[in-house]
Amino acid sequence: MDSTPLERDARAPSLASFALILLLFVGSGCAALLYEMVWFQMLEFTIGSSAVSIGMLLATFMAGLCLGSLIYPRVVPATWHPLRVYALLELAIGLLGLAVLTGIDYLGNLYVLSAVNVRWELMMRGVLCAACLLPPTMLMGATLPAVARWVEATPRGVSWLGLFYGGNTLGAVAGCLGAGFYLLRVYNVEVATYAAVAINFAVAIIALALSYRLSFVVPAANPAPSTDLSQTASWPIYITIAISGFCALGAEVIWTRLMSILLGGTTYTLSLILAVFLAGLGLGSSAAALVVRRLTSPRLALGWCQASLVLATAWCAASIVQGFPYLPLEHQFLGSLGTYLWLDLVRVAVALLPAACLWGASFPLALAAISATHADRGRMVGQLYAANTIGAIVGSLLFSLWLIPAIGTQDSQRLLIAGATLAALFMFLPNALGASPARSDTSSPYPRSRARRFTGLAAVVGVSVLAGWSVAAMPFNRLAFGRIAEMIDPGVKELYRGEGINSTVAVSEHPNGLRSFHVSGKVEASTLVDDMRTQVILGTLPALIHPKPQSALVVGFGAGVTAGALIPYLGITRIVICEIEPLIPQKVGPFFEVANSSVAHDRFVEIVYDDARHFVTTTPEKFDIITSDSIHPWVKGAASLYTQEYFEQMRAHLTPGGIAVQWVPLYDTNVEAVRSAIATFFKVFPHGSVWSNGKRGKSFDVVLLGTSEPLRIDLDEIEGRMAQFDRSIVLQSLNYVEFKDAFDLLATFATEADDLKEWLDGAQINRDRNMRLQYLAGMTPHGIVFKAVHSEIMARYHFPASLFVGSDEHLAALKARIESANAGK
């Protein structure tokens, strides 16, 4: 590095120079969030989207930031021009961004090969995350400490460092919204990555050009330490900022879960929540940065910031649980996605912003409080940033993996309040224990007596106790029904609620005896006949059609009915159920044992707790039947179970003659989303067919059936096979959902893939790298289109002589039943 400018030009930077560097940090933050969203999406396809996997991704990403901030000032000489180092860092981040995009699939393939050994599988997840995320994130973490060396160690300089931090965070808001609402929705991960790389390169070029115009003075030796212990003891500040990071990320985990229950967990809603949280951090840090230069005691200001978080946390808890405004009864007529999002933006901002702004303000205040003890600004910023990040890592992991499942969101929010109180006390106690200033010192910000100081501390603790007591549990109808809670009969009874490691589940009972199973504010299964019929079809149809089924994989436990429908079929000796949330089979299943044949306790059943995508990708086992009763594709992440690559994995894990079955909802969606899901399935299974839960000429959802080779369903053989089964048990299962016999089940046939080619022409294929379906389905999460879509599908119906074979009598009988069912007779 050329250090000549250090000696020849020592002019102070202008306001315009600082403003331009601030804009560069906005760009850095935008690129970083784009990368984060892209990398997380791509890695989740390989290591899964369970809480453990997501926690590992987040921890690795943040650990890289932490390591970068700590290592940089120790390995890069203080004499190197900071802006040139910053330019090189941004350039390297862009190059690594391209490398990750190119190499992530190759690394993923290596992981899949190694993950066959279950003993090493979890370790290999960590290795994959580290290989992809640590190199670029360490460079990201080094950018702020790098530029910190260019800023003078004065109140004005500390103020600008706070603004750089705030600008970086506000840039992340732009990245979050840009990716969630445009780049990933309209394009794909490649385009989003290229946009981030372009930003990195632009920032690097501008920073490099500035380095030749702006001078840099090598920092002087460490100043003489102050004799005032309250000004020189740095450890309380590090602990306070670590607790602040712990609470901030813990709150994000808790409040994102609660808000996604109330507003719906679409990719748009979750992007909005994250953007508001980041905006609060950025606004708070920017505001604090503007005032720190005028503060006489930044430590006390940091303490009052933490104390204020007690009230802000209680406010957010109350806003979400008790005061959140809900859509009126006619919510489905409010209009476009934009209308929903504007309403949700107001709700989220009112609840989140106060606390997020205060957490954002904590970092500049801590910088100001600690700046007197450091001459190397890079090391000062790096250590403080690392402390905050370590706290954030611990908070995100502890709350998501242990605290919420162990004590629930209500007590977890009380723990946030306790954490804010503790952080405030770390700042207040040194002052409270110190000697009283002289009465003549009227400018002193400290209390004039020790008694008054401890009275103030007692008041803070008292307010904290009251704030913690005020945190209420989520009302059951809102926890179970989410956005449509106000439409539900208030007489619905709570049978069970549980907050698991991956999701919040509940079981309710209507006054008429109808039972429903809920996941994150949405009904996933119920004892309603139309609902049960779909679940029975998902299990019974492939078991009846396959000539000799012996093994089956069921994706998603649900109410257990799909897996339970497989039990009566003799010959099936292995049923693997893959479920991501342990509470569902353990706690929810028993409420539906009449309908699911106590499947969780059957000797032929093995329940695997894992993300289905990860399990299907890594298991060496093949199955005669793979049936998927997955969650609705508008829920963020669920569309990964509807991608072309996932269906190819399903096909690869079928035995010769095996059958793949996929559920596709026609409710709470739109026509384009349905076309996308069906077209993607048929791209992998071109010999597939569509089956409805059809009775009375309507269907709320359809079932797709696919095989590697053309399928032939021999009606005579099925009639004979029914006699081999325990006919009474099979018929009991069919009769439960108003099917008189096996021919009634086969009469749910709707159409074949070939007949839908024209209708599906131009449909968007859902791929791993575009996840088109979650963006399409999320556009209308409460759309009412099932009648129209079912009519469009049935308009292409003709009786498939190539699919059904058998005696003329059986063929004529089945044809009559299909036409009768779809005519509503």
What does this structure look like?
The chain has 825 residues and is of the alpha/beta class. It folds into four domains: 1-6 and 15-216, MFS general substrate transporter like domains (Growth Hormone, Chain: A); 231-433 and 451-470, Growth Hormone, Chain: A (Up-down Bundle); 476-519, no CATH class; 527-822, Rossmann fold (3-Layer(aba) Sandwich), CATH 3.40.50. Helices cover 61% and strands 9% of the residues. It has 29 helices and 14 strands. Strands 7-6-5-8-9-11-10-13 form an eight-stranded mixed beta sheet, with helices on both faces. Helix 9 crosses helix 13 and helix 10 (267-291) packs parallel to helix 12 (337-370). The longest helix has 57 residues, at 377-433. The chain is elongated, with a radius of gyration of 30 Å. Residues 1-11, 221-232, 327-333 and 435-447 have low confidence and may be disordered.
Give descriptors for this structure:
825 residues, alpha/beta, Growth Hormone, Chain: A, 4 domains, 8-stranded mixed sheet, 4-stranded antiparallel sheet, 29 helices, 14 strands, 61% helix, disordered N terminus
Record the SSE blueprint.
Elements: H1 4-8, H2 15-47, H3 51-75, H4 82-114, H5 118-148, H6 155-186, H7 189-211, H8 229-232, H9 235-263, H10 267-291, H11 298-321, H12 337-370, H13 377-433, H14 450-470, H15 476-481, E1 493-499, E2 504-509, E3 515-519, E4 522-526, H16 529-545, E5 551-555, H17 561-564, E6 574-579, H18 583-588, H19 593-596, E7 605-609, H20 612-618, E8 623-628, H21 644-652, E9 654-665, H22 671-684, E10 689-692, E11 701-706, E12 713-714, H23 715-724, H24 727-736, H25 742-746, E13 749-752, H26 757-760, H27 772-777, H28 786-794, E14 804-805, H29 808-822
Parallel strand pairs: 5-6, 5-8, 6-7, 8-9, 12-14
Antiparallel strand pairs: 1-2, 2-3, 3-4, 9-11, 10-11, 10-13
